């Protein structure tokens, strides 16, 4: 059974390796191997731990094993990450994680989410209600440029003060 819950500091060590496996498995058809290798070699940003500690990250677990995670910068509305373990992809987990972020954003009074989607993820975000704004080259902190699509989604006001999915 899949459960989503707020990420904690105890989850941090597992998040970045999952992200790296997901990038390697999902992005190969859209990016050259040299880009993927540089992208995957980068260390986690300090902002990851900070956002987890702020309560703006969620993990999905199945049978007590990490299946995916998502992170939202609640100050800006930027969806910072949505990654699913490769063996769990295609089961709707990423959509569940994204919905959790949307509830969190609405509770914080955000009216808009935005992100820079990797080319392999554009169709997913479109299915989730995000609109393409422009093609761009994302300036990755490793020094490479990653072809991507800037996307945004307008949010409805929160209906109640309930907590995000648990």
Structure description:
The chain is of the alpha+beta class. The chain has a domain at 2-110: Aminopeptidase (3-Layer(aba) Sandwich), CATH 3.40.630.30. The chain is built from 5 helices and 7 strands; from the N terminus they run βαααβββαβαββ. Strands 1-2-3-4 form a 4-stranded antiparallel beta sheet, sandwiched between helices. The protein has a 3-stranded antiparallel beta sheet with strand order 5-7-6. β6 (131-139) and β7 (145-154) form a beta hairpin. The radius of gyration is 15 Å and the shape is globular.
Short description:
This protein has 166 residues and is an alpha+beta fold. The protein is built from five helices and seven strands; from the N terminus they run E-H-H-H-E-E-E-H-E-H-E-E.
Topology:
Elements: E1 2-6, H1 12-26, H2 33-41, H3 46-53, E2 57-62, E3 65-73, E4 78-84, H4 93-107, E5 112-118, H5 122-127, E6 131-139, E7 145-154
Antiparallel strand pairs: 1-2, 2-3, 3-4, 5-7, 6-7
Shape: globular
Distance between the termini: 13 Å
Sequence of secondary-structure elements = EHHHEEEHEHEE
Cα Rg: 15 Å
Q: Are there runs of 5+ residues with pLDDT below 50, and where?
A: 161-166
| Approximate helicity band | 25-40%
Strand content: 25-35%
Which features characterize this protein?
166 residues, alpha+beta, Aminopeptidase, 4-stranded antiparallel sheet, 3-stranded antiparallel sheet, globular, disordered C terminus
